[in-house]
Write a structure and sequence with these properties.
The structure is a homodimer of 398-residue chains. By secondary structure, chain A is an alpha/beta fold. Chain A has helices spanning 16-23, 26-35, 47-63, 77-85, 106-116, 133-149, 152-156, 169-177, 197-204, 209-218, 223-238, 254-268, 290-295, 321-338, 353-374, 384-394, and strands at 2-9, 66-70, 96-100, 121-126, 159-163, 180-183, 243-248, 276-281, 300-309, 315-316, 319-320, 343-350.
């Protein structure tokens, strides 16, 4: 279902000895992951929980016009990526899921309030700690709107809380008010939380969770490939390839590259190291960043995510359009490689829920391995606290 | 209307002597721009042309449900950025402009065809050369749809061609068929073409062109600031700050950062040099790339685009939301600076058509100056041809 080519346009950039040396550390790195206490995302999700998520999704679709997900970072990027990737470009044929809590824009929130005024909506507020500023503000603003619309007993039915099992202000409030709750386990960090209710509930509104689950755990078969990917990235970094550009050939996949940016950026960007993740949407961005990649500063390598077949079918002068798209992909790899840019390729047979879930597991595994290869903890993000401290001081709360 | 701070979070990274040296080259660089033969975008657009664009826009709005812009790279990024930046997040209150020709996705084109089936639409096909592959394919597919819907005489009214004055296959076809045409001047390159009909016609459908024109040429007053910006970027590059991250605090401005990426990436990325342009949308991406910027590999600097006031007005616990957004911006600059990241700031009093047009002129000027400071031609893009040659060979057309 997923194939990899880490050789054709990469090999000359990699020294064999270095490669062998890192490859031989595999057992050690795998053990580090198992010992980390943060590998909950490699465990099976329980059937009871899956059933509960499906049941809740069914009720939401039955009772409401739309659901607003309030979450930021690891609390929304997974389900958002998934949701965007398969949608129709021009008509929303899905049950409507709105993402909020990702901005402090007055314009955004104001227009959201106007839009929701006459809708029968519910909210799913997602925060492990319960203290995320954007989440808190958005939740307050939307709860106020609900309060203006509904009496106390009815109000309760419109709020779902996804948070820590025991701790935090959101958990406290949910217990007190009797809101429906879901739990984010302690041994799964935000950017690795795809397989938790934080993402599975919004996804269940429009997709078959069974496909997601089957696909996700199929990722376990890609352990070797994930490790090799981590090794090659590490070696390219040592060759001063400081940027990884993820290339996709379908505009809807832009959201998936945003998920990738958090996964790798937040996992690796510590102690002065890490590969800076960026993305280009082709063929669009070949006409904007293509020049730089071909002839500019040689500090990057690329990872292409190719989709072999597409369901929709159009021809141009007798050639299927998807074939032209794929020919361009091959040509771009060849051209960029000739310009000194190593190109890795990940080939999906089809762009569907199952395959993408497999890919998500693969990338999570690769990111975790990569952290250990860099000698950093793949599961913390101490640097995010620095600006938050400044904000608290500026707002006079310290 | 626009203020700049290139000092507070930058100065310690800049050596005074180097700075003075580059600053003293100003006259020389300005002369290079004037002598380039490609500075048509600094000249006044004629009143006759403006009138013609406005008149055409008025007719389009009167006759059609929507317009499809077919263009890629410099043929769409400017008007697209403009269009996205001011739109309502949840309800389209504008005359509908659809952007196509930016992808070879079968899914996108198939869904576009379905969407347009029952619409009374016109198309504006934009390509200087007339040979851009994505444009050609999309134009053919949409013209076929129009042909199925209309007789020859009616069909003509649905097509506008924006291309070279004399040359190319599109010009030829337009003259033969009697389509309405607009011209892209020879002394203006794609990424500098905001002030041409390529962008002004789509913009005129929803915005007052007079605001755009007034704002744009007001940019001439920012010559000194644009030059200083180019100088500082150049010095940061020499300090191995290889990535420029453009930060915006309004999700709608994401499209503007895409325009910036082409402008700087395609202008500078040559002969092994250039600053790689990337972007983060705050506060969203503080929860994804924030960790890396704070503590990861120190190869980047940031340019913040701040909006002081917003029309919409919401409060949180007595503080206007936009004030909180701005407090976060200041805190983030402080935090990232303390982590070794130089931060430049551009402050817009308001986010409106006039201000953004001024900013566009400013950035174009800075990009051109920057090219000359790097010792490269800011107006060509030879590297884009490399993959196109591969594509032609693969498609068996050579």
């Amino acid at each position: 279902m997923i194939k990899f080519d880490f050789k054709t346009y990469v090999e000359p950039f990699i020294e064999k000895e270095e490669y062998q040396k890192l490859m031989s550390k595999k057992e050690d790195v795998m053990q580090q992951l198992q010992k980390s206490g943060m590998a909950g995302w490699t465990d099976r999700i329980s059937n009871e929980l899956l059933k509960e998520i499906k049941e809740t999704a069914k009720q939401i679709k039955h009772q409401f016009d739309c659901m607003v997900v309030i979450g930021i970072g690891g609390s929304f990027l997974g389900s958002y990526a998934f949701d965007q990737m398969f949608k129709n470009y021009f008509e929303n044929k899905n049950f409507e899921v709105i993402y909020a809590g990702t901005t402090l824009s007055s314009k955004y929130l104001d227009e959201l309030l106007n839009y929701l005024k006459n809708k029968n909506f519910c909210i799913d507020v997602i925060s492990k700690s319960g203290t995320t500023m954007e989440t808190t503000i958005t939740y307050k603003v939307l709860k106020d709107l609900l309060k203006r619309k509904y009496e106390e007993e009815e109000l309760k039915k419109h709020i779902i809380v996804t948070t820590d099992k025991k701790e935090g202000i959101l958990r406290e409030e949910a217990e007190k008010e009797g809101y429906k709750t879901f739990e984010i386990p302690n041994n799964i960090g935000g950017r690795y939380s795809f397989i938790t209710p934080a993402h599975l509930l919004p996804i269940a509104l429009n997709y078959d969770l069974d496909d997601v689950i089957v696909g996700y755990y199929r990722g376990k078969r890609l352990t070797d490939q994930a490790y090799e990917y981590a090794v090659i990235r590490n070696l390219l970094f040592k060759k001063k390839k400081y940027i990884e550009n993820f290339c996709v050939y379908e505009e809807n996949m832009a959201s998936f590259t945003e998920w990738l940016k958090q996964l790798f950026g937040e996992t690796e960007g510590k102690k002065g190291v890490g590969i800076f993740p960026t993305s280009t949407i082709h063929t669009r961005d070949l006409h904007s960043l293509g020049q730089f990649i071909q002839e500019g500063n040689k500090i990057l390598f690329e990872t292409f995510i190719k989709v072999e077949k597409q369901e929709e079918y159009l021809e141009y002068e007798g050639t299927p359009l998807q074939e032209i798209n794929n020919i361009v992909e091959d040509s771009v790899m060849k051209a960029h490689y000739s310009g000194g840019v190593p190109c890795l390729e990940i080939i999906l047979q089809e762009l569907d829920a199952e395959t993408i879930s497999t890919l998500i597991y693969f990338f999570q595994l690769a990111a975790a391995y990569s952290g250990f290869l860099f000698g950093i903890n793949p599961f913390d993000q101490p640097g995010v606290e620095v600006y938050k401290k400044e904000v608290r001081e500026a707002l006079g709360k310290e």
